[in-house]
Amino acid sequence: MQLAALKHRTESEDSFVVDPKHVRVRFHSAKNDVEKVIVHYCDNYLPLKYAKTIEMKKIGEGQVEDHWGVTLEAPFHRLKYTFEVIGKDGTSVVYGDRAISSDVEAAVNEDGAYFKIPYCHEIDMVKTPEWVKHTVWYQIFPERFANGDKSNDPKNVKTWNPSDHPGREDYYGGDLQGVLDHLDYLKKLGVNGLYFCPIFKASSNHKYDTIDYLQVDPEFGDKDLFAKVVNEAHARGMKVMLDAVFNHLGDQSMQWQDVVKNGPSSRFANWFHINEYPVEPYRDPLKGEGDPQYDTFAFEKHMPKLNTANPEVQDFLLEIATYWVKYFDIDAWRLDVANEVDHHFWKKFHKAVTDIKPDFYIVGEIWHSARPWLNGDEFTGVMNYPYTLQIEDHFFKNKLTAMQLTRRLTDQLMEYRDETNAGMMNMLDSHDTARILTVANGDQDLALQALAFEFMQKGSPCIYYGTEMGMSGGNDPDCRKPMDWSKEDGPVWQRVHNLIEFRLKHDETFGKGRIQLHVTEDGLIEVDRTGKEQIHAYFNTTKKNIKVACENAFSQNYENGELAPKGFVVEVH
């Protein structure tokens, strides 16, 4: 047995309270190396003669590991447990809190060999708001969704043309009135969560270079109009998520302009990470100009980085964060460049917004493993790019085999607690990426097959505006074309609508149920979801028709018991 591969951590994604009387534990071993894992467990204060045993189930296969899981009872809200591991070579060890022991009988009778859960505190549990598990998001880039009020159009506004290839400085006049006018459309499509890219006053069309967080950009409307959008969305059963940029300000903000003017004597000098004065003209290291005078987002001179360790900056940002919750009743924040802001601030942020709204949803933009942010006191979830981009690597780019995909996704699921996985925001494209139809080389069946696969996963799925219209677009800014309203109710629209409807019809299982990923002998990818019902989904990413006998609850390219390439079929029991 490969002892070096045995792995478990307490009070982590390997050991977490699911309710005051139950603890979910996971264990990891080398692939195909372990025959079974038995957990010995009992209350912390009971003699070990009262210990119970339960065999763990293999819950997934990763790249180099087998993953095991089981839920343990803790009737007195406390627990101690240890692992008896039996290898396929016939050897046995106890993997305990202090050591790995080959003397199994002695170890299971030694209190020091047991991991401890001192008390199952409900307040320390990682929780996902219930409503998130029943939500399908729709991402709106306000400048390109719909122009509902031409009176607030910026100068040099371009004609609304969905086939344009927008430049970085182009404006098309999209606004909040356009969103308000189309809320019934979004209700008809079936989505029940609206994720807005920034709406605050800023210098650009994308609004990520904020000038004033307490003002709606006049090109989009005003606060009264935004309040109406929120109220009307809520009346239709839709949640509203705003996008906040707390990592940096725009260089046209009052605070930064004061630094430009007054240098080290500015009262805002300590609001930023400044290395040298004067701060202008900016030295860009990408152009070989030397070290920059101040820290920024990337090396973007228009986005000076905020010093979130400064109490004044904290107060400023927390006022903004709570203002839109208290006075406009938003339901969620998406946090831009969230990984570059300190943990100390995010803990304060979490407390500030959840004190107002306990079921508030917080999503961080993090493109890599995000465990440090996902322990229940910072973010609910993150934009799940490490998970979803691997879906693209198999379905669209053929970089991964089906087996490689399922094993990598299984490893990703093991990075987080079950509740955290349920709170992830899953998207295949966004304002920062090429559109899925373009990545799929214009193959609509392939794009919708991958989208359906995303919808079968743990987490809250998100559709980028225009996906339902079959819109294409390369990387930013081409992915931000004006919405193509001519395709409403068309064949692609109907298929996306049906997918959303299916997901929400079975949201109890999709939102809360367990997941296992397999590859069948014929090469189909199988997604098993277990919860209120049993859901089995099969995806054919091969180049041949494959027979699969199942009840057809929802499908694409499935006929007479055969699943064609780019097809899927889902059965529900």
UniProtKB/TrEMBL annotation:
Pfam families: Alpha-amylase (PF00128), Alpha-amylase_N (PF02903). Keywords: Glycosidase, Hydrolase. It comes from the Bacteria. Gene3D superfamilies: Glycosidases, Immunoglobulins, Oligo-1,6-glucosidase, Domain 2. The keyword Hydrolase applies. SMART domains: Aamy. Residues 139-503 form the Glycosyl hydrolase family 13 catalytic domain. InterPro entries: GH, GH13_cat_dom, Glyco_hydro_13_lg-like_dom, Ig-like_fold, Ig_E-set, O16G_dom_2. CDD domains: AmyAc_CMD, E_set_CDase_PDE_N. This is Alpha-glycosidase.
